[in-house]
Specification:
121 residues; mainly alpha; Arc Repressor Mutant, subunit A; 2 domains; three-stranded antiparallel sheet; elongated; BlaI/MecI/CopY family transcriptional regulator; transcription
Length: 121
Protein backbone atom coordinates (compact mmCIF):
# COMPACT_ATOMS: atom_id res chain seq x y z
CA UNK A 1 0.00 0.00 0.00
CA UNK A 2 1.29 3.42 -0.92
CA UNK A 3 1.79 6.03 1.78
CA UNK A 4 -0.47 9.05 2.05
CA UNK A 5 0.73 12.59 2.52
CA UNK A 6 -0.74 14.57 5.40
CA UNK A 7 -3.11 16.43 3.05
CA UNK A 8 -4.17 13.19 1.35
CA UNK A 9 -4.90 11.66 4.74
CA UNK A 10 -7.01 14.73 5.65
CA UNK A 11 -9.02 14.22 2.46
CA UNK A 12 -9.47 10.52 3.19
CA UNK A 13 -10.67 11.33 6.71
CA UNK A 14 -13.42 13.45 5.14
CA UNK A 15 -14.45 10.69 2.74
CA UNK A 16 -14.53 8.16 5.59
CA UNK A 17 -16.60 10.50 7.74
CA UNK A 18 -18.93 11.93 5.10
CA UNK A 19 -19.18 9.23 2.44
CA UNK A 20 -19.36 9.85 -1.33
CA UNK A 21 -18.87 13.48 -2.43
CA UNK A 22 -18.32 15.66 -5.44
CA UNK A 23 -15.17 17.80 -5.33
CA UNK A 24 -17.30 20.90 -4.72
CA UNK A 25 -18.79 19.22 -1.61
CA UNK A 26 -15.34 18.19 -0.45
CA UNK A 27 -14.15 21.77 -0.90
CA UNK A 28 -16.90 23.03 1.45
CA UNK A 29 -15.95 20.51 4.14
CA UNK A 30 -12.18 20.73 3.78
CA UNK A 31 -10.60 22.67 6.67
CA UNK A 32 -8.60 24.91 4.33
CA UNK A 33 -11.50 26.27 2.28
CA UNK A 34 -9.13 28.64 0.49
CA UNK A 35 -7.73 25.62 -1.35
CA UNK A 36 -8.58 26.08 -5.02
CA UNK A 37 -11.08 23.66 -6.57
CA UNK A 38 -8.57 22.53 -9.24
CA UNK A 39 -5.90 21.81 -6.62
CA UNK A 40 -8.32 19.73 -4.58
CA UNK A 41 -9.51 17.95 -7.72
CA UNK A 42 -5.90 17.08 -8.60
CA UNK A 43 -5.35 15.70 -5.10
CA UNK A 44 -8.49 13.56 -5.35
CA UNK A 45 -7.39 12.16 -8.71
CA UNK A 46 -3.97 11.35 -7.21
CA UNK A 47 -5.74 9.43 -4.44
CA UNK A 48 -7.70 7.59 -7.10
CA UNK A 49 -4.47 6.66 -8.91
CA UNK A 50 -3.09 5.31 -5.63
CA UNK A 51 -6.22 3.16 -5.22
CA UNK A 52 -7.68 4.93 -2.18
CA UNK A 53 -10.62 6.55 -3.96
CA UNK A 54 -12.93 5.50 -6.76
CA UNK A 55 -15.63 7.39 -8.63
CA UNK A 56 -18.95 7.10 -10.37
CA UNK A 57 -19.77 9.34 -13.31
CA UNK A 58 -22.72 11.69 -13.55
CA UNK A 59 -22.47 13.20 -17.00
CA UNK A 60 -19.32 15.30 -17.07
CA UNK A 61 -18.81 15.24 -13.32
CA UNK A 62 -17.68 12.56 -10.90
CA UNK A 63 -18.75 11.64 -7.41
CA UNK A 64 -15.85 10.18 -5.47
CA UNK A 65 -15.91 7.65 -2.64
CA UNK A 66 -13.40 5.80 -0.49
CA UNK A 67 -12.20 2.57 -2.12
CA UNK A 68 -10.57 1.38 1.11
CA UNK A 69 -12.13 1.51 4.57
CA UNK A 70 -10.54 3.45 7.39
CA UNK A 71 -10.19 0.20 9.37
CA UNK A 72 -8.29 -1.47 6.51
CA UNK A 73 -6.04 1.57 6.12
CA UNK A 74 -5.35 1.60 9.86
CA UNK A 75 -4.47 -2.12 9.87
CA UNK A 76 -2.15 -1.87 6.89
CA UNK A 77 -0.46 1.28 8.21
CA UNK A 78 0.09 -0.26 11.62
CA UNK A 79 1.32 -3.45 10.01
CA UNK A 80 3.87 -1.46 8.00
CA UNK A 81 5.11 0.31 11.15
CA UNK A 82 5.41 -2.98 13.05
CA UNK A 83 7.28 -4.58 10.16
CA UNK A 84 9.63 -1.64 9.61
CA UNK A 85 10.41 -0.59 13.18
CA UNK A 86 9.67 -3.64 15.34
CA UNK A 87 11.01 -6.52 13.24
CA UNK A 88 7.43 -7.63 12.53
CA UNK A 89 6.86 -8.35 16.24
CA UNK A 90 3.67 -7.09 17.88
CA UNK A 91 5.11 -8.31 21.18
CA UNK A 92 7.88 -5.75 20.81
CA UNK A 93 5.26 -3.06 20.21
CA UNK A 94 3.37 -3.96 23.39
CA UNK A 95 6.65 -4.21 25.32
CA UNK A 96 7.60 -0.72 24.21
CA UNK A 97 4.26 0.66 25.42
CA UNK A 98 4.70 -1.08 28.77
CA UNK A 99 8.29 0.14 29.15
CA UNK A 100 7.32 3.70 28.24
CA UNK A 101 4.42 3.45 30.72
CA UNK A 102 1.88 4.16 27.97
CA UNK A 103 0.13 0.91 28.86
CA UNK A 104 -0.69 0.23 32.50
CA UNK A 105 -0.71 -3.19 34.14
CA UNK A 106 -4.51 -3.05 34.39
CA UNK A 107 -4.78 -2.25 30.68
CA UNK A 108 -2.41 -5.10 29.86
CA UNK A 109 -4.47 -7.51 32.00
CA UNK A 110 -7.63 -6.33 30.20
CA UNK A 111 -5.94 -6.91 26.86
CA UNK A 112 -4.94 -10.45 27.88
CA UNK A 113 -8.49 -11.10 29.08
CA UNK A 114 -9.91 -9.88 25.75
CA UNK A 115 -7.52 -12.16 23.86
CA UNK A 116 -8.48 -15.14 26.00
CA UNK A 117 -12.19 -14.39 25.52
CA UNK A 118 -11.74 -14.20 21.74
CA UNK A 119 -10.00 -17.59 21.71
CA UNK A 120 -12.98 -19.13 23.51
CA UNK A 121 -15.45 -17.79 20.94
Amino acid sequence: MKKLTQKEEEIMQLFWAEGPMFVKDLQKKYPDQKLHYNTLSTMVRALEEKGFINHESFGKTHRYFAAISEADYRKKTLGNVVQKYFDNSYQRVVSMFVEEENLSLDELKKLIQDIENNKES
